[in-house]
Amino acid sequence: MGIAKKIEASLTKSSWIRKMFEEGTRLKAIHGEDRVFDFTLGNPNVPPPPGFKSAPLETVRNLGPCSHGYMPNPGYPFVRKAIADQISAERHIQITANEIIITVGAAGALNVVLKAILNPGEEVVVPAPYFVEYGFYAENHGGVLKTVQTRPDFTLDIDAIESALTEKTRVVLVNFPNNPTGQVYSEESLARLGRLLKEKSDTFGDTIYLISDEPYRKLAYDGIKLADVFSTYAESIIVTSYSKDISIAGERLGYAAINPRASARKELVDGMVFANRTLGFVNAPALMQRVVCSMQGVTTDIGAYARKRDLLCKGLSEAGYDFLTPPGTFYVFPKTPINDDVAFVGALQEELILTVPGTGFGGPGHFRIAFCVDDETIVKAIPGFKKVMDRYA
User: What's the rounded mean pLDDT across residues 304-312?
Assistant: First the structure.
């Protein structure tokens, strides 16, 4: 029979990001790496903070006997405490190690949370544009993804979210700074969302959870201060990772944090710990848990990404593109000058510029540029961006 029909169907709509990345590999083999300008994958290219290089060696030197054995399913208690202390300091909320579950990246954390709270057929409401894998994650656990368009500037449309909420709604999932748009959400909009979810939870007689996916939280520019879902809604859960904070995406280290004010806090903890084990992740690697314990509160050089953003935005602006200068992340999400964003991305590809069509993110008429690349790649690609814009303008 081959593979399962569900997986076969999923493969037909699988990630545009990976498709374009694979196309980049093919083109680089033909034209050479230095002639292909690949802006497809959000793979951090700024080195980890200076202290990270020595941290693994120091950690290994200080290991005691039996340090590579099994651990508690939520992760090492001392690592969870270090994370909780950092969150408490940053968000001015008292959270303990008991509300932290260490996971295999933010993707692992999202799957752990959704497995713990979703019943078959329940809906996960997501503002669009959104990260392409959310639909698969909801599907993994019997859920249904339901998208709601944001405003033209990609901020939350609370009225549209309200219209989407039904008795089947179990989760509203927000991601900010947002992939692919780079937009952030204001404290006022999150407060409105929190009030709405409280009202609807009371009306429907069941909790609607707010999950905030925040792997780009530390990648915010121009001194912007990000709002906090913990302070705006009690029934909230944060999922995140260290992939972008300290540029260790391949180490797959993240966590889920439960709002200590959540009404079913103990049940959530128990359910998520169980899911962490039975999904097969069990735990993030023991060595890297110890390493990140010593890296709390530090980040990679965010200024380097700000410089790349400004370099790219200047070039795009001069070439005639219409876009939001992103307050965060390392993505720009310009409008395409034609309705068919897939065709426009194809035209860029003829200039050996690889981007991702907005259709894949639920944002047709746009395309995503990941600027976590060498400055030289940005500079050399700008003439190609201008050439394609001139063709359609």
Answer: 98
